[in-house]
Amino acid sequence: MLSQDKRHLIAKRVAEELEEGQIVNLGIGIPTLVPQYLGEKEVYLQSENGLLGIGPAPTEEELDIDLMNAGKEPVTAIKGSSFFSSADSFALIRGGHIDVAILGTLQVDVKGEIANWAVPNQPILGVGGAMDLVAGAKKVIIAATLFNNKGESKLVSNLTYKTSGIRRVELFVSDYAVFKFTDDGVRVVEIIEDITIEELSEKVGISLEYAEEKILN
Amino acid sequence: MLSQDKRHLIAKRVAEELEEGQIVNLGIGIPTLVPQYLGEKEVYLQSENGLLGIGPAPTEEELDIDLMNAGKEPVTAIKGSSFFSSADSFALIRGGHIDVAILGTLQVDVKGEIANWAVPNQPILGVGGAMDLVAGAKKVIIAATLFNNKGESKLVSNLTYKTSGIRRVELFVSDYAVFKFTDDGVRVVEIIEDITIEELSEKVGISLEYAEEKILN
Amino acid sequence: MRKVIQANEVSNLVKSGDTLLVGGFGLSGSPLTLIYELLHSDVSELTVVSNNLGEDGLGLHKLFEAGKIKKMVGSFFSTNKPAVTAWQKGELEIDLIPQGTLAEAIRAGGAGIGGFYTKTAVGTELAEGKEERVINGERYIFEKAIKGDVSFVKAAKADKLGNLIYHTTARNFNPLVATAGKIVIAEVDEIVEVGQLDPEQIITPHAYVDYVIQSKFVKQGVNYVESR
Amino acid sequence: MRKVIQANEVSNLVKSGDTLLVGGFGLSGSPLTLIYELLHSDVSELTVVSNNLGEDGLGLHKLFEAGKIKKMVGSFFSTNKPAVTAWQKGELEIDLIPQGTLAEAIRAGGAGIGGFYTKTAVGTELAEGKEERVINGERYIFEKAIKGDVSFVKAAKADKLGNLIYHTTARNFNPLVATAGKIVIAEVDEIVEVGQLDPEQIITPHAYVDYVIQSKFVKQGVNYVESR
């Protein structure tokens, strides 16, 4: 599969997890592809810099440096949107009022703790709102390819990169499988790629099991 | 002097202390009489329940239960006024953005610490914004008669009523004299009533001295 | 996603023993319809966080008279004689907090802040038993955030998504309690279509609001009266 | 009480070694006129608190290039290569704080709150050396409030009293820094008469604002360009 196809495959699968009316924050990268797969389902996109209700990309005429998303890309605002300060925006995030944060990551450990802010071997000079979203969102879904560009699994037994916080994410939607994290550890909810769970386990280097969804939910 | 005259005398003297453009919070009682003595001097009155820019008392037609001051009396709002939440209002107060708070009191000690919230021998079930104003305003002026209705001096060596906080007020404008509080203690800035400083000292029960204004300022 | 509900659905959302956060300053900006709905319900043992206990015979005071309030958390109850008497008899618990600290604690509860240090009340009786800390040479006391099970909010207008705007000083504690309840119910004078509120003027974004009801009260001078 | 001043009066208000609080998110809502006024002044050794260091060659980055910034306090500098290099060489100090913690700390500074406990960053490298406390069973870290000597604010409109309103997401950190500086200067697109701003819509009441200047920049798509 082409890299671009994988990204869309992941975004489409994540879109299925969202529910009508939810307040959603999207990280940069694959998460930004999710809205195009929502169909009729209406969700409300929040941006850290002070907007609830991000609309479609602006036309050339609509471009306005005042109106940006947290990735500093120009956006529009939908009907019913609202603007607020950064303090009020993070009150919304940290206070548990974002239903779902969809984030990229560098690593996820088997308990669901993630490392998504500090790129290894680079000076650590940027965190932005990453840790606030990890700490505050009601549910965190990771949207990322299972392997990084060196072929290393992002699902790991123990984080070797710097943690983004003690909060464990709920779901990791990858191009190979969907992983769910509970108090019992990681379980495979769904296999996307044409691969057995044994083959997946071998590729990842962790012995993986299917979730018994009926029991877990 | 009639009690009502004393109250107006105090209010008029306090008005002289205010400067054009200041942000002022008025406690209940005598402080509410101050605005009528401001003449051309424009100050902006803040109310704890979320208003900067209190206007004159409303006409019968203007009465609106939504628009109240912190004493729960109907008010109006002037041009250039703004409304905000109680959290934002006390951020303004506690954060040091009120230039002058004019408050009543039960007692002031010789260092300027005041007791103005807990009425003695009554259950202590009300504090309102009193302690926030004492802690936060840039300058606190006490506007009160020097003696309570039992004839006891409100200026005391040590508070016997419950303190409103560790912050010392700057000025006490009474019907007998104006007292200033500095690190060196209380000084008489001005005598209002026809009385000598010795007679005043005797009435109050504290040996009082004049301030040397030129040195103090 | 049906946020607009009927007033009689409200009492199902509140349970006995709940902590209820209620906006309003005295009666001004008080969610009277929501409060009075509980009079006909069997909820009791409520802890109510609100600046005042309404006014004698009105607002939250009616809930207290009906024996539904176990504890009040607020800043000013002195002028409410029946509440003072009940407190003296041990029939009502009261937790007295300076008004600014109360507002800040509710905001903190809604904002994911566990607690904070304030200058207000340092050295006073209301600081007794509270941790004190010197920060940059100034004395502060620690206050914990306040959260609730259910919040009652009064706003001027809601759109159908639940975005809220307020009217003058009736705003007061309302936007704060709107952030800090597990279930947030707003009583409004007018419900408008989505898009009719100015995005720059919305004070409470719809993310905070679970339900909206039409107020049964209208303003008449310095009173709110039940509309016919 | 003359609040409206000329841009060239600004540099007299800032001293070397000052802590400067600057609104804006990247360049969006950045007070460019105020920032660029300092380029021609002899102030130096500034500590600047702002989410970013502008963008390469623009905004705060110009102050940095001019050697006027000793230390940055903010949340995201990774994409600013010259800043990263300067930090590696020890020529620029950087204090990295999560974006929400930064916003809350500035708000606290303006609100008379000494410090607060946040859930954000618990257990991470950014919590190292910070006090941790369990409140109601959850882990939090302590953060101190942030205050400044001078605040640079960008708003859409000011009235002549200094009341401010903002435009869309250019609001961001601006209302926060407006509360937390000893001297607060607002750069605005338009100065209007008192009474022309809706009292319900004013975000920064004039009590916070010491001076107002007319911005020299206008929007042109995704840029601010100097007006002629």
From TrEMBL, chains A, B:
SMART domains according to UniProt: CoA_trans
The keyword Cell wall biogenesis/degradation belongs to this UniProt entry's keyword annotation: no
The name this protein goes by in its record: 3-oxoacid CoA-transferase subunit B
GO molecular function: CoA-transferase activity
Family label: Belongs to the 3-oxoacid CoA-transferase subunit B family.
Assigned keywords, A-Z: Transferase
UniProtKB/TrEMBL annotation, chains C, D:
GO MF terms, alphabetically ordered: CoA-transferase activity
Taxonomic superkingdom: Bacteria
SMART domains: CoA_trans
UniProt KW keywords: Transferase
Pfam families: CoA_trans
InterPro entries attached to this UniProt entry: 3-oxoacid_CoA-transf_A (IPR012792), CoA_trans_fam_I (IPR004165), NagB/RpiA_transferase-like (IPR037171)
NCBIfam families: pcaI_scoA_fam
PANTHER family: KETOACID-COENZYME A TRANSFERASE, SUCCINYL-COA:3-KETOACID COENZYME A TRANSFERASE SUBUNIT B-RELATED
Protein name, entry field: CoA transferase subunit A
